[in-house]
Amino acid sequence: MRKLVAGVAVSMMLAGEAGAAEKAVIETKPAQSFGALVATQGKMRPLPQTPVTFGTVETRWRSASRAEYVKYMNPSSFKKGSNEYYQFLDLARPAGVDVKALSSLLKGHGVFARKGNKSGAAFKKAAEKEKINEVYLVSHALLETGYGRSKLAKGIRVSRVGGKYVPPRVVYNMFGIGALDHDPYRLGAERAYKEKWFTPEAAIIGGAKYVGRAYIHHPVHRQNTLYEMRWDPEERGEFPHQYATDIGWAVKQARRIGELYAKLDVETVRFEVPKFR
Description:
- By secondary structure, the protein is of the alpha+beta class.
- It has two domains: about 1-90 and about 220-275, no CATH class; about 115-215, no CATH class.
- About 35% of the residues lie in helices and about 20% in strands.
- It is built from ten helices and seven strands.
- The strands form three sheets. A three-stranded mixed beta sheet has the order 1-2-7, with no helix packed on it. It has a two-stranded antiparallel ribbon with strand order 3-4.
- The two termini are about 20 Å apart.
């Protein structure tokens, strides 16, 4: 069952944003109560995670305390008009950003900025084909690839998949799909080979297809905001359908999306914010 939407969208200019995009804020009614959602997280294995940092560098991960993950789970913790609020952005529709503007967002970011590359056009094509917000796609790819500089972004030569020899090809993986923590480069590259992501553009379009069909437009879960992808407030099974274990995953993505939106001329932005019982 799809989440219930309460009332009608409230269109407004957020404070301090004269001349900015019109912001439509829609309240949704999750199937779970907030208390039930919190209780579910306490049963997760591993528990919700948070990084241990040395300066600004994340050195390792630890289990988050209940107070830590409850803060990130509570929509009221995030102020309207802040970059963090973009975790409630509706991702299930393109933003209408043209290729030139998308390409400008990618300048200086590794493989995405190589001379003659067609990344901007690929993000645009992926957004239109899969019905996904293209600014989110850019942000997610930048996060997963270390701003276009990871090994999977720059290309890895693969000659074996699953222990079997295959015709050698250079592959790309822009969303970290299949790159499990215990061996991310090998597994991410093997997944890319299976998917035939033999160019950066193919990896962008193919990665968007995976994210769209596994989360944003999934026939059961339909998690069309970063908040929903992280916390799954609709939970329809024994375990939540979550994209990440990091309690700050949605917020980190949202901050980057907010920074990107500030560089663009977008007429309308739609947010879906859960209102728990």
